[in-house]
Write a structure and sequence with these properties.
The chain has helices spanning 3-12, 30-39, 43-51, 59-92, 102-109, 130-139, 153-156, 180-185, 211-223, 231-241, 248-258, 261-275, 281-284, 293-304, 308-318, 322-337; strands at 23-24, 55-56, 97-99, 121-125, 143-144, 160-164, 170-174, 197-201, 204-208. It is α/β, with parallel strands linked by helices and 359 residues long. It has one domain: Beta Polymerase, domain 2 (2-Layer Sandwich). Helix 1 crosses helix 2, helix 3 crosses helix 4 and helix 15 (308-318) packs antiparallel against helix 16. The two termini are 34 Å apart.
């Protein structure tokens, strides 16, 4: 059995319809399995699967898995402490924000937060507030990981801006939820018209996406990213779905307003296939929502990792309005030649990597 097959078995553990019986891991496979489980954010689930006998291994291997799970849990606690630091910083400044992914999913939608591994702190801010949010974190000792190639680029075109604390914790400030073409098309404003959800972290309540928006985010994250899409992202789709199975019309309304209905259809279909998920009937219907030819091309692009030129062309089709497309293309040309963009195009240019600056 390959490492990926083992990871699929781990990701399926506890999924309705997904469990396929125990699998065995040889001692010589454990090191690679732990590396890949970390990459797929499945260490907590792997530890649980070993404890439940779904993943069978010798005692020494089980101890190695458990030790790695403890390390991951300790890091998650550090991330949650830093999340509270970011919250206090923004709250004191009166800056609206909502935490996404990570702890907000683990604590609300999983049976135990240790099953959902986190790697950084993710916060959604309004585009108009992005520069101020970055400045607040920089003033508090964070280092921005990418420069803005042009003034105003991030608040118009980037998916997110990454900063790093002195302790090495990454904070991703998201302007919009989707990556790439869907991120360029999607309106970030509609999320802010919805009441915020709340999640308890470290004994305190912090703002998060409401469950409907959280499901949209989980689906988008699972299929619309030029970064590696982890199996844990598909597991998020399954876990959050339980909270929204009765409000699918509201889901569709929000997805349509954001221009990401195709992402939800793709994510649910993938979760059913990859995790063997017996989805609730109302949620399973999402997989049958229509996907246009252009949307199919966009979805395939995340998997195929196209060249920068191809991404630029896909992005041009996604940017709304003729003037927006012109500004986008002028910025593409300026980047490719290394010359500064014209004044009229200084508000943005296409992302090189998943709507985010290259790391």
């Amino acid at each position: 059995m390959t490492t990926l097959d083992l990871l699929r078995a781990v990701a399926r553990h506890g999924v309705v319809g997904g469990d396929t019986g125990p699998v065995s891991v040889a001692p010589e496979q454990v090191a690679t399995l732990l590396v890949e489980a970390t990459a797929h954010k499945l260490v907590g689930l792997l530890d649980q699967a070993v404890a439940d006998g779904v993943v069978r291994c010798d005692e020494e291997s089980a101890v190695r898995v458990g030790d790695r799970a403890v390390e991951v849990a300790a890091w998650s606690v550090q991330l949650e402490r830093h999340l509270l630091v970011v919250h206090d910083l923004f709250d004191d400044a009166g800056l609206p924000h909502r935490f996404v992914k990570g702890a907000t999913v683990a604590h609300r939608f999983y049976s135990h937060p240790g099953l959902r591994m986190s790697v950084d702190v993710d916060a959604l801010v309004e585009p108009a507030e992005l520069d101020r949010a970055v400045a607040l974190l920089v003033e508090a000792g964070h280092t921005r990981q990418q420069r803005d190639p042009y003034p105003g680029f991030s608040r118009r075109y980037a998916k997110s801006v990454s900063l790093r604390s002195a302790a090495g914790i990454e904070v991703d400030l998201h302007r919009v939820i989707p990556d790439g073409p869907f991120g360029l098309r999607a309106s970030p404003d509609v999320v802010w018209t919805r009441p915020a959800g709340a999640v308890a972290v470290g004994g305190r309540e912090v703002p998060a996406l409401d469950p409907v928006a959280a499901f949209v985010q989980a689906c988008v994250n699972a299929v619309a990213s030029y970064d590696m899409v982890s199996l844990a992202s598909l597991r998020d789709v399954v876990e959050v779905a339980a909270a929204v199975a009765g409000v699918v019309p509201e889901l569709r309304s929000l997805a349509a307003a954001m221009g990401v209905e195709a992402c939800l259809a793709e994510a649910v279909a993938h979760a059913v296939v990859e995790l063997g998920w017996d989805a609730p009937a109302s949620v399973a219907e999402i997989a049958r929502w229509p996907i246009s030819a252009r949307e199919r091309e966009w979805l395939d692009s995340y998997r195929l990792r196209p060249s920068d030129a191809r991404r630029a062309l896909l992005g041009m089709h996604a940017v709304p309005g003729l003037s927006g497309k012109v500004a986008y293309l002028v910025s593409v040309a300026a980047l490719s030649t290394g010359r500064p963009a014209r004044r009229r195009a200084r508000e943005g240019h296409p992302p090189r990597r998943s709507g985010r600056h290259p790391r």
